[in-house]
Each structure stands twice: as structure tokens, then as C-alpha cells.
Amino acid sequence: MSEMRSPHAALRNSETAGRVMKNAEQVTFGGSGLNRAGHIRGDDAALAQAQAHPDAACVLLWRGKPLVNGGRDQLGLVRMNHPILKAGYPGNVDRPVLLGLEDDGAPVFAHDISGWEPEGLDAAALGQFVDPSEQQHPSLPPDHAFAELRRLMTRLSPRDAELAATARAVIGWHHTHRFCAQCGAESEITQGGWQRTCPACGAHHFPRTDPVVIMLITHGDSVLMGRSPGWPQGMFSLLAGFVEPGETLEAAVRREVFEEAGIKVGQVGYLASQPWPFPASLMFGCSGEALSREITIDPVEIEEAIWVTRADMMAAFAGDHPFIKPARRGAIAHFLLQNWLADTLD
Ligand SMILES: [Zn+2]
Description:
Blueprint: H1 7-16, H2 38-41, H3 44-52, E1 57-62, E2 65-68, E3 78-79, E4 97-101, E5 107-112, H4 123-126, E6 145-146, H5 149-152, H6 158-176, E7 188-190, E8 195-197, E9 204-205, E10 210-219, E11 222-227, E12 239-242, H7 249-261, E13 265-276, E14 281-290, E15 304-309, H8 310-317, H9 332-342
Parallel strand pairs: 1-5, 10-14
Antiparallel strand pairs: 1-2, 1-3, 2-6, 4-5, 7-8, 8-9, 10-11, 10-12, 11-15, 13-14
The protein binds zinc ion.
């Protein structure tokens, strides 16, 4: 932990979180122990009080991109009385979401202004895998901008990363779940943004989190890596796939590895999890022991799968491997591989 200034600082950080941090929770979006204040969500008077709190702050989101400061390393929070929150752009999620309470009791909300149409918008940039464009709103500080969370995630503090991931996932869910899945009527935001309730049939709908297994499959000194069709050259990652209804994590790991690479997996274990709000996944990092080495890929799912030795993976992380590029920082695959190399999986 090179960023810890002293053992005392490390102790204070884990005490603030009110629990013992496992190494596994140091992953990007691993959480900061935010008090999510579930008791306020259903209490209209307490919610109104939280919104009117003099220190209440708000994470602003535009089309999934959080507002960040000039240094692009902190969220650019605004006050709850900022005029931008009243602009009412058509297409906004029209109510704030209560994210929780800061350690000093100040409420934090998320507010969406996706209906705003910036001048000279570069639509091609928005469609890219990692959108390089930034948008500046005339009524916000001139050095602040809306920027793609994938570009920022490793620079944010654990608290800002948790706020941004939560805001992006919940606001994104509201955008894609406006209508009741039971009767088709337009539903309403309730519970401080943590539910939608249908005024026609009374059904309640809850934000989705889609479980994905991502697995460190090893055989002796090697780890199984794959690449999907269309990935940049040299990019390999751990195999991953959605958990299906009726399936355990262990079964999903074994099924995905056999489907994609034709390899049977024996013992499976859980390593770490990561909320991944692109748009609504929860990644379950698992380990698995391969029972054989022979690879038979499913060419529809993956383009190539290979066994990579520890030495080759170290070279890839150092940028010295002839064809394997290092995994992307911030993603759980990078975190698991790094801990596998350092022998610090716990
Ligand atoms: Zn309904």
C-alpha cells in the first residue's frame, strides 16, 4: 500500500470504514463503507429534510458520465440548490437519488441531466468503447467536465468511486426501466430513487444487478486467458460470463470455461467482487483448478484462448511480452492477475 502515508493512516482508514478491510476489497469500486441510509428512503419528511440540508451535495451525471473537477481526480459535487438541478431538461431522470450520508452526516444525492444537449456534440466519440470526449456545461465551473468513468476510475478515491459507480448504475436503470414490466404503464420513482412503483397495477420494481463470473483458471504455473473477436490486438483477459437463473457461481464458472475453452474445472473458490456499472454488473472473481490443459475454443464466443505462465504474465505486466498486452487497470481481471503474481490472493 504505497499510498498509505503511515501505519497510523492505514489504521484510521480501516476504522473509518468500520470493519476490517480484506485485500480483496481494495479493488477499484471495492467500496468505502458509505452509509447508504436505507432508513431515510421510505420516509418522505426525512428525504425532504436531507435535500434541504445545508451541506447536502450532489453527484451530477450526464448520459452516464459523472461531473469531475479540473484535476479529473475528484467528483465535481454541486449543492442541491444549484440552478442546473431545476433546469428540467426533457429526458432527465426527474428525481434525485439518495446515495447516502457522508461520515459527517451530510447527505449525498445523484442527479441526472441527460436531457441537456451540449453544443457541437461529437456523437461518434460517445459511441466508442472508452469515450474520450468531455462536455462542459455553461453554468458549471469552467474547469469541470462530464467524463467517461472508465477513464477516471483508478484516479478517484474509494469514496468517490463508490458514489460514481452507484449513481451511474441506479440512474442508468431508471433510464431503461421507465415502464412497468408487468402492465406497461409508466412507473414512478419512489424510495429515494431505489424503487419504481407502478401507479396502475401497484407493482414494485427494484434496481437490477446482473451477476457475472470472471475466473482465474490455473493449471500448475499457468493461467487461462482468452480474447474476444474484435478486441484490440494483444488484448487478453480472464474468461467471464453471466450467471444464469438457477445456477450457482461454481456451476457458472465450470459451464463458461467448458463452453468457451473446452476445459473441465474441478475445485472452484471465491476471491473478490467488483461492482461494474457498465451498465449494471456485479463481477464475482473466482478461482478454479483446470483438470486438463487441452483447449478447444468455441469460435462464436472467443477468438483465442491460451495458457500463460507466471513468467510470461510478469513480462506482459511490465509491457515486455512479445504479444500479450497488460490487462487494463481498474478492471477486476487486472486486480486478480496482479494478486496472483504477487501471491496475495486472500
Ligand atoms: Zn404496472
